[in-house]
Amino acid sequence: MSAWNCEDCRREVIGKIRRGRCQPCYRKHLAQLRESGSEAPAQPRKYRPRKPLPRLTVVDRIFRHTTPGWGGCVLYTGHLSAQGYGVSTVAGQPAGAHRLVYLSLVGEIPDGLMLDHVCHSSDADCVGGPTCIHRRCVNPNHLEPVTPAENNMRGRSRSAENFLKTHCMHGHPFTPENTQLLKRLRHDGQPQRRCRECRRIANRKWARGTRKQRRRQGA
Which range, of 5-19, 20-34, 52-66, averages the lowest pLDDT? Predict the structure, then answer.
């Protein structure tokens, strides 16, 4: 540190200097000013109320956390769910970001329908799943209300691939006469299909095996 000399006591001061004086001399100087009444009164600070910030709407909050994507997508950069969809909050409750944008800018979603990302359906190279970049898209022009079955058929899931198959794994065609609809439902609410010819072949094998087992037991 640099050394200074106090203006009053002329002693060398190393450290903080207050108006050219050391700390003890500066306190004495303030006391003399108070006694003589020559100390300038402190000016009260004028209180200026802060202007309230405009309250952002749900859509404004969502679009503050977006970035442009390929093909006109508007990708949400905020919190994502485990399935890869953008998540925002309304009244403290989590909700899908793309659903909130659609409800605010387009309108209500009809009962029994769900939003499908058209940008994903038109991208043949997208494999889908939680890493699908299109699930982050909040562009209302890329959203379309469809049934759960239609939404599943547009995807890349195994059930969608199986539904589009015209033949079973053994080559039998899925005709109305050869197709059995099971009571077990897929995750999209549609019944599972089973080939009747494959079922008949399996039943005949089971019957032949049962007859052979009975003959052995009788022998």
Answer: 5-19
Whose tokens are 């199986």? That residue is 162
Instruction: For residue 142, name the pLDDT band (cuts at 50, 70, 90).
Output: very high
d(CA 138, CA 99): 8
Residues 123, 89: Cα–Cα separation, whole Å: 29
Encoding tokens for residue 55?
């309250």
pLDDT tens digit sequence for 70-90: 888 999 999 999 889 999 988
Q: Give the start-end residues of each E strand in 93-134.
A: 93-96, 114-117
Give the CA count within 13 Å in the CB-facing half-sphere of 113. Answer: 11
Residue 186: both structure tokens together: 């897929």
Q: How many CB atoms lie within 10 A of CB 43?
A: 6
pTM greater than 0.85? no
- The four Cα atoms 100, 105, 111, 116 give a dihedral, to 10 degrees, of -70
Helix/strand/coil for 34: helix
Q: How far apart are CA 121 and CA 176, in angstroms?
A: 28
Tell me the two tokens of residue 20: 């050219």
